[in-house]
């Protein structure tokens, strides 16, 4: 099995040729100096080199050996610590951090490209730095000056790693049920007690310290989510003493063995509050939204990695006669010549390429939302991020699993054995449909929380933007029609749901998200097609085998609306 | 985690209430004495008890410990040998074997029920006896009297187990490429040399002997599949000496760790020919067809096992407020009350129930095909088995994986950890999409080999039979219309494919199989609905969330036909 090799040129193609990211970034004063395709391409190429040489080769052993727990300590798989030390010392975690915190101030989208590559190469390893930038942003926006002085640079540089401690045994999707308690101490700090589960990287030997961000309740807090505050608990205090936070065990999982999923017990651990009391979820949301985009990128990256493996195998292995070829009895054709295998490969390629366009566009809009001088542009960007992030997270993590499984199928029986590494992708990818908000919760987020609450004004504006973006080329008429049709459906059928029985919208949320995902893909494929010479096979696969689901989802929604 | 518990009453319900199996069996003189619902129900209940008490509890450790290879020998997981010894000594392998071979002469469908239960409870363990009955039938129909005298009873009783040695490193789906050689010896036997891979149960300690059925080439054989002959090589000869057949290693796999997948090397092993030279594939097909039905039953059983787990969890675990319930802040509702979770559970239930109807009907038709006094009935039954088996194998193994993954989703993060056992179902189920002919090969089998070769006469007759079977009840009009519509589509669009470029049919084979599967499901749901009080939720789920794919597949086929 060969380790995954990033293809920097393909990422740069989407960024500059398809999305014209440099032109967009040039509009943002804070980032305009980096709106240089030469510079950004160089960063992406270097990232590809680092990922391919240092991170990718550790993936297999990360799965085979896994993170090991012993008496509260976690030993990471061979090579993981050295790779992490090389990673932060080379400055990779600080790409998009602010220069005043020691960061490089590059656009968010460059970090997005890096993380897509990292996840494709080694999902398990990448979990550890995956939450780092979110934790940095969370502290940057919500922590006191004192806390910032003590932690911000270490998180910006990645010298220390961070966790997000939300889930408890009885409180998974529903954070309002969190019971961990924080009791004020006389010195202004807090004593924090409780048990958190499913904490990725809660304990490990990659970095010399770990900064835990923990949701907990103050003694006088009201029940439910508004009673939650956010606290910081380091593994080691500044004086070198160890906090009262213990890793009780790590989970045995289906995959992702390179990432320790920890049960963390806090025993009156000394904690500092981050932001205001009762505003914990608010402070956490910065981190969670960033994490959702990264999980969507995981989906794109993992599917791409599976595709690369399957495609290489199909170009090399021969099996059976393919129809319409001239081979003789006793000879066999390359697997890639068989229609069923071509269909799998081209269909997954369609998902990867469109997903990349949508994900990079989202990362760009994050910067536009922050930095654009024009308020209307900032508003449109905020709308894009808010509405597209759950769609990307849900649809592309599902595809990483289902499409990864299709790529496994290309190997026949060899796909089921570990030797080729393809089954690891499928096992690893499965978790992304669950964490950072299950895919079903993303669907509720899109329809119930973000579409019905403003009479669909935001989503309709997004659809209108997509249509405008496609211009008037006749080839895109089908996509413009579909956008208009979905708009009508939303106005006439979905918006009236806001006044119906409360459970009705929940029955069509999943279909609604899928239909939105397919429309975004259709837009992305128009953009890709308008860029000379790109993937005719994948484009045809999209229209022939992916797009027909749109009609099916409308049918299903119709049944849920009338049923 | 609780071990799976078969629900005998649900199996008996499909068999007698829905399919009226006893009436059908009463038409077959060879089996009429067993057409007794009391007797058959008792066998099914006993089977459920045995499976629940003896086989199911071994499933988890079978996965955790797995089969272990050492120096050519394979040690099975704890309890596996004892369970197997109890299994054959209780007579379970011989349920459907002929009385003259020491069997019990029960209908094939009873064995089907047993195997569905076994696979649901412990897929890994069940692989070992999975091929036994096929091997028995193969010898019964093709072996010489001398070979039969030496092996048939041992296989009928299950005292010895059997393998099917087809695949070689370069010859998986394409058996025509097999290179294993058999050289005649002066005494009428053969010396067999070559390496076979992916041999399930090639070596183990469950039974005292193992009978290998091996495809190989005689020295003067032509290239391709017509040059293949079938040979028998026992692990131990009658004199107790060991054959020159070695297990070189077992594969590390994604799942199914309880079943050793062996690389078997034959070094001039003494072999006996089974059937005529050059007719090896023909003899093997008996075994392969039986195996395909069993794999379809694995799909149904594995999905049912995953559903049972998910349903139990959803009835017990509380998380978030469900819409439309009266719970207060700080309280949570049962997972089963959330629409997205109900949708998953009801949809998978729809697949399980319909799959069971189709699978049991197929098992019944196998006996009708063999034993019915009326040639027309035998012919119709042969048509059913030939056309429905690939559909069942492909669509239900895919559903065991995709629907098993949906059941995993019901557990949220807990589904991804091993503790609850649901992730094992997903890992185990994945292989069934590959072995016994990949799902893509099943689709080619259905469309190219079985539909286009007779101008679709067989398939059109099957559709007509389904429509007739539904009678004239007004509720079934939609299904009758769909059957008629697919018939027209086949006549007008598919049949003309036979004269087109050779690769064209291959592009729509997968969609064609899916459309056929959905029509069979629609028929099964009409049958289920006509039986008082059965599963209204699952029925509604079928029409709302499963059936719309039918239209989508027609759209996709249309694009492949015109594209």
UniProtKB/TrEMBL annotation, chains A, B:
Q: Which organism is it from?
A: Hydrogenophaga laconesensis
Boundaries of every Acyl-CoA dehydrogenase/oxidase C-terminal domain copy:
278-444
Would you identify the family this protein belongs to, as annotated? Belongs to the acyl-CoA dehydrogenase family.
Tell me the ranges covered by the Acyl-CoA oxidase/dehydrogenase middle domain, including all copies: 164-268
Give cofactor(s), names only.
FAD
- The name this protein carries in UniProt is Alkylation response protein AidB-like acyl-CoA dehydrogenase
Read off the InterPro entries from this record: Acyl-CoA_Oxase/DH_mid-dom (IPR006091), Acyl-CoA_Oxase/DH_mid-dom_sf (IPR046373), AcylCo_DH-like_C (IPR036250), AcylCo_DH/oxidase_C (IPR009075), AcylCoA_DH/ox_N (IPR013786), AcylCoA_DH/ox_N_sf (IPR037069), AcylCoA_DH/oxidase_NM_dom_sf (IPR009100), Diverse_Acyl-CoA_DH (IPR052166)
Give the source lineage, highest ranks first: Bacteria, Pseudomonadati, Pseudomonadota, Betaproteobacteria, Burkholderiales
SUPFAM superfamilies, per the entry = Acyl-CoA dehydrogenase C-terminal domain-like, Acyl-CoA dehydrogenase NM domain-like
User: What superkingdom heads the lineage?
Assistant: Bacteria
Q: Which keywords fit this entry according to its UniProt record?
A: FAD, Flavoprotein
Q: Which PANTHER family match?
A: ACYL-COA DEHYDROGENASE, BROAD-SPECIFICITY LINEAR ACYL-COA DEHYDROGENASE FADE5
Q: What region holds the Acyl-CoA dehydrogenase/oxidase N-terminal domain?
A: 44-159
- Listed Pfam families: Acyl-CoA_dh_1, Acyl-CoA_dh_M, Acyl-CoA_dh_N
């Amino acid at each position: 099995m060969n380790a995954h090799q990033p293809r920097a040129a393909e990422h740069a193609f989407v960024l500059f040729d398809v999305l014209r990211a440099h032109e967009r970034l040039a509009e943002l004063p804070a980032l305009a100096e980096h709106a240089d395709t030469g510079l950004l391409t160089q960063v992406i190429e270097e990232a590809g080199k680092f990922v391919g040489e240092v991170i990718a080769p550790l993936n297999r052993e990360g799965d085979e050996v896994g993170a090991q727990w012993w008496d509260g300590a976690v030993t990471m798989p061979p090579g993981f610590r050295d790779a992490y030390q090389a990673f932060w010392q080379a400055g990779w975690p600080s790409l998009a951090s602010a220069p005043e915190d020691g960061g490089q101030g590059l656009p968010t989208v460059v970090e997005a490209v890096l993380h897509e590559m990292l996840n494709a190469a080694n999902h398990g390893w990448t979990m550890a730095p995956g939450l780092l930038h979110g934790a940095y942003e969370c502290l940057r926006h919500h922590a006191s000056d004192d806390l910032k002085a003590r932690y911000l640079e270490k998180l910006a540089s990645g010298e220390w790693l961070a966790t997000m401690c939300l889930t408890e045994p009885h409180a998974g999707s529903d954070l309002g049920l969190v019971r961990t308690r924080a009791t004020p101490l006389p010195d202004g700090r807090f004593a924090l007690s409780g048990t958190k589960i499913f904490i990725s990287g809660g304990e490990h030997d990659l970095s010399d310290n770990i900064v835990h961000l923990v949701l907990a309740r103050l003694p006088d807090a009201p029940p439910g989510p508004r009673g939650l505050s956010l606290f910081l608990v380091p593994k080691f205090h500044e004086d070198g003493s160890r906090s009262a936070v213990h890793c009780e065990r790590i989970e045995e999982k289906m995959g992702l063995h390179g990432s320790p999923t920890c049960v963390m017990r806090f025993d009156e651990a000394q904690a500092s509050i981050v932001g205001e009391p009762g505003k914990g979820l608010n402070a956490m949301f910065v981190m969670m939204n960033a994490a959702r985009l990264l999980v969507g990128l995981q989906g794109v990256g993992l599917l791409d990695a599976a595709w690369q493996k399957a495609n290489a195998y199909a170009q090399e292995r021969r099996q059976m006669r393919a129809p319409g070829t001239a081979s003789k009895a006793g000879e066999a054709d390359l697997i890639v010549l068989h229609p069923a295998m071509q269909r799998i490969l081209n269909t997954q390629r369609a998902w990867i390429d469109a997903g990349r366009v949508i994900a990079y566009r989202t990362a760009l809009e994050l910067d536009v939302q922050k930095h654009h001088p024009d308020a209307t542009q900032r508003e449109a960007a905020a709308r894009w991020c808010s509405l597209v992030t759950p769609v990307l997270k849900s649809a592309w993590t599902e595809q990483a699993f289902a499409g990864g499984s299709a790529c496994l199928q290309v190997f026949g029986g060899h796909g089921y054995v570990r030797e080729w590494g393809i089954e690891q992708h499928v096992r690893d990818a499965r978790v992304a449909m669950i964490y950072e908000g299950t895919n079903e919760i993303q669907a509720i987020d899109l329809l119930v929380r973000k579409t019905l609450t403003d009479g669909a004004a935001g989503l309709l504006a997004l659809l209108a933007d997509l249509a405008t973006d496609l211009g008037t080329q006749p080839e895109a008429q089908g996509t413009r029609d579909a956008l208009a049709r979905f708009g009508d459906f939303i106005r006439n059928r979905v918006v009236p749901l806001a006044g119906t029985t409360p459970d009705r919208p929940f029955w069509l949320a999943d279909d609604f998200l899928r239909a939105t995902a397919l429309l975004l893909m259709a837009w992305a494929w128009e953009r890709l097609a308008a860029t000379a010479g790109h993937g005719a096979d994948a484009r045809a696969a999209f229209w022939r085998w992916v797009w027909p689901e749109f009609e099916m989802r409308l049918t299903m929604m119709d049944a849920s609306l009338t049923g």
